[in-house]
């Protein structure tokens, strides 16, 4: 039956060349949604076969069906919760029953509970059948893998390619943008986005997010209006952001009762069939409560981020009460500031604002209190937290409270000390070592013949330094020649000499240490430059460790010789950067000033370094900014032998001004405290560049030990054998 319905869906496709509505309008209005997992699987099969129109139809219908399933669960949950016969009996958690003891009253309460559960189940089943067709939500179960794929917006990655093949460029750009918002470091999509922007037939308004949650769109617009001192226009958008946030939480909470949510939790915990009736009921209910509490963080997490905006609802209420006060709506300002005090009763700024509003109003307003929607949210949340902490204390359940505002009185006393200890624990990885006295690194710099040009204070920041004299002009020349020879040999790793994904006006070329060693081993470049590349990278590591981390060893995690070249004829009225502002181990969010240390960022990187080789180009200066990515705090001009080293976190956002003429080359290095993330290619390159005499000595040692067990070939030698057979150098790791 499902196959027949999907076949009918394909027949509903518009003929080639016919207009297609933007976005994701349903292809079969009024029809019940089909199983999203089957639609998605068929869409991928059609995509793999090059059947672009059927792939688009099936992928869009999968998105529509998943959205319809979520709406149905939310609406049915609200409808059935309001059914009088389906209301659960209100008995406190720690009250086993009425005062009459373990008798008929307890049995009556048990019957009330189970009868209400049966009535609620009946209501949900009937509602689901009406909204979703026979079988209801059970027929449309979505597995964990598919939910993750939709969360990452993977269908849009396939949609943009299929739309491109169908010559629907505006829709392709919209799908690409939608995917890119949730995956901001996806290199291939970044390149595709740059291509779409260069296409004359793609309109600027096509770059829109088809999945933007309504509360984030309203929130961002409201904050933007507030920033322009337009409080009266900002108020409706901020109020909409609050209401949409609460609605999004309700939708998320409805999904917590879905069968796939319980199934995934049971698979993770290895539970689900253990214990008797009440143990199973309790386990299921605990998982529902845990999921509901997570909805707060899910709603406060922007697309493409893994961590929520801290204190999202209280901060939104703070913006609301300030905006109301600016336009003279003191009653509404008081409502919102009183709501803030529900979260944080001792908030000094909120109490001060409340006193000001009361003074301006003059007479007391007896009916004026916190917002009812916020009161309901807090009371319900606290009730769920009490049950979860009870389960932690008595049933051994786990619960990570997502809210910093939870009152201590809600947490059982026996758990408070343990939770406090867990919060105070800080692994050594997150505690930078205390710097040694200045004489320690000064001695190292003196030994290396290096001079300190600018320290962190002169660079208006923290953990930044500019050192000069790391390379002689002759050494710079050797490394520049290495980059040139490698380019001519066609060994462009990274972006393979194509236009940079950061700017369409520049060409980007990168050379790793292993690629340089392989080219030298093959005779395509001189071995002097490849060996110097290894030596210099170790020199930079030694100095960076001496200056920033003398008590803890640093390891090279990635090394790359990078050249950026201006493309002639494309520099007039150029407005973009050579490399946009970013941080090296976290995802920078300029809107909030936060930097999320989470994948896809290289979170293990602790210090960064840029060793410059030349200055005969225009533009290309390195600059540091405030977390807003706009306010420049320091700027450094490249020159031969100059090293700029800095910590890789959100305290050092940086970018590169456009290279408008010439070629800018530098050695980019990243260091880590974690030995498991040290650069293995560096060791392989060193092995590959050993002199023949050294290799002969090793072979003699091997001949003396014939009983040694055979081991796999080193990766470098396997690569060389592949090269010998095919005549081509294999592609090695490429990294941004």
From TrEMBL:
EC number(s) recorded for this UniProt protein: 1.14.11.7
SMART domains named in the record: P4Hc
InterPro entries the record matches: Leprecan_dom, Oxoglu/Fe-dep_dioxygenase_dom, P3H, Pro_4_hyd_alph, Pro_4_hyd_alph_FE2OG_OXY, TPR-like_helical_dom_sf
Keywords: Dioxygenase, Endoplasmic reticulum, Glycoprotein, Iron, Metal-binding, Oxidoreductase, Repeat, Signal, TPR repeat, Vitamin C
Reactions accelerated catalytically: L-prolyl-[collagen] + 2-oxoglutarate + O2 = trans-3-hydroxy-L-prolyl-[collagen] + succinate + CO2
Enzyme class of the recorded protein, top EC level: oxidoreductase
Cofactors demanded by this protein: L-ascorbate; Fe cation
Biased composition (Acidic residues): 258-270, 692-704
Iron recorded as keyword: yes
Endpoints of the signal sequence: 1-19
UniProt domain Fe2OG dioxygenase: residue ranges: 559-673
Region Disordered: start-end pairs: 250-273, 681-736
Source taxon at top rank: Eukaryota
Sequence ranges of Basic and acidic residues compositional bias: 681-691, 721-736
UniProt record similarity statement: Belongs to the leprecan family.
PANTHER family: LEPRECAN 1, PROLYL 3-HYDROXYLASE 3
Protein name per its UniProtKB record: procollagen-proline 3-dioxygenase
Taxon lineage: Eukaryota, Metazoa, Chordata, Craniata, Vertebrata
């Amino acid at each position: 039956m499902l196959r027949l319905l999907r076949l009918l869906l394909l027949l509903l496709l518009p003929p080639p060349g016919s207009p297609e509505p933007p976005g994701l309008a349903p292809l079969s209005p009024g029809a019940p949604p089909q199983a999203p997992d089957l639609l998605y699987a068929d869409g991928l099969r059609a995509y793999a076969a090059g059947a672009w129109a059927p792939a688009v139809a099936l992928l869009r219908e999968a998105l529509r069906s998943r959205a319809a399933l979520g709406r149905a669960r939310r609406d049915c949950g609200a409808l059935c919760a309001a059914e009088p016969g389906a209301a659960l009996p209100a008995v406190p958690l720690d009250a086993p029953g009425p005062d009459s003891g373990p008798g008929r009253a307890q049995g009556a309460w048990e019957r009330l509970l189970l009868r209400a559960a049966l009535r609620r189940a009946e209501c949900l089943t009937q509602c689901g059948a009406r909204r979703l067709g026979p079988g209801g939500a059970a027929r449309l179960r979505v597995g964990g893998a598919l939910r993750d794929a939709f969360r990452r917006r993977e269908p849009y990655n396939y949609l943009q390619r299929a739309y491109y093949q169908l010559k629907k460029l505006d829709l392709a750009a919209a799908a690409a943008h939608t995917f890119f918002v949730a995956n901001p470091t996806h290199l291939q999509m970044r390149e595709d986005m740059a291509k779409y922007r260069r296409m004359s037939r793609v309109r600027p308004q096509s770059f829109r997010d088809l999945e933007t949650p309504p509360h984030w769109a309203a929130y961002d617009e409201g904050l933007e209006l507030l920033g322009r001192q337009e409080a009266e226009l900002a108020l409706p958008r901020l109020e909409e952001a609050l209401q949409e946030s609460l609605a999004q939480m309700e939708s998320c909470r409805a999904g917590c009762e879905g069968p796939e949510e319980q199934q995934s939790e049971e698979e993770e915990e290895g539970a689900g069939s253990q214990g008797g009736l009440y143990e199973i009921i309790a386990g299921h209910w605990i998982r529902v409560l845990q999921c509901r509490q997570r909805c707060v963080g899910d709603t406060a997490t922007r697309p493409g981020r893994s961590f929520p905006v801290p204190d999202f609802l209280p901060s939104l209420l703070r913006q609301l009460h300030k905006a109301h006060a600016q336009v003279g709506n003191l009653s509404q300002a008081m409502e919102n500031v009183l709501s803030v005090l529900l979260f944080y009763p001792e908030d000094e700024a909120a109490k001060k604002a409340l006193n000001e509003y009361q003074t301006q109003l003059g007479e007391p307003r007896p009916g004026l209190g916190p917002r009812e929607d916020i009161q309901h949210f807090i009371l319900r949340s606290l009730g769920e937290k009490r049950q979860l902490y009870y389960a932690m204390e008595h049933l051994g359940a786990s619960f990570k409270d997502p809210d910093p505002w939870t009152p201590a009185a809600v947490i059982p006393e026996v758990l408070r000390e343990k939770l406090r200890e867990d919060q105070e624990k800080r692994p050594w990885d997150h505690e930078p070592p205390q710097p040694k006295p200045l004489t320690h690194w000064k001695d190292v710099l003196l030994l290396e013949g290096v001079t300190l040009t600018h320290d962190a204070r002169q660079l208006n920041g923290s953990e930044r330094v500019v050192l000069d004299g790391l390379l002689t002009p002759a050494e710079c020349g050797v490394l520049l020649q290495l980059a040139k020879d490698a380019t001519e040999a066609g060994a462009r790793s990274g972006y393979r000499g194509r236009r940079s994904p950061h700017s369409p006006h520049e060409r980007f070329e990168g050379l790793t240490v292993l690629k340089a060693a392989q080219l030298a081993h093959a005779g395509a470049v001189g071995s002097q430059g490849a060996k110097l590349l290894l030596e210099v990278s170790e020199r930079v590591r030694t100095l960076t460790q001496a200056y920033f981390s003398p008590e803890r060893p640093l390891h090279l995690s990635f090394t790359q010789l990078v050249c950026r070249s201006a493309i002639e004829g494309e520099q007039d009225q150029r407005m973009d950067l050579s490399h946009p502002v970013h941080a090296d181990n976290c995802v920078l969010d300029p809107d909030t000033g936060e930097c999320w240390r989470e994948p896809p960022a290289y979170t293990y990187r602790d210090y960064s370094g840029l060793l410059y080789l030349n200055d005969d180009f225009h533009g290309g200066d390195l600059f540091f900014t405030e977390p807003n990515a706009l306010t420049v705090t320091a700027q450094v001009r490249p020159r031969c032998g100059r090293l700029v080293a800095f910590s890789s976190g959100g305290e050092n956002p940086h970018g590169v001004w456009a290279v408008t003429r010439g070629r800018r080359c530098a050695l980019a290095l990243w260091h880590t405290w974690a030995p498991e993330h040290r650069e293995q290619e560096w060791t392989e390159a060193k092995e590959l560049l050993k002199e023949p005499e050294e290799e002969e000595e090793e072979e003699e040692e091997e001949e003396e030990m014939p009983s040694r067990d055979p081991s796999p070939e080193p990766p470098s030698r396997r690569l060389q054998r592949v090269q010998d057979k095919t005549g081509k150098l294999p592609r090695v790791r490429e990294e941004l």
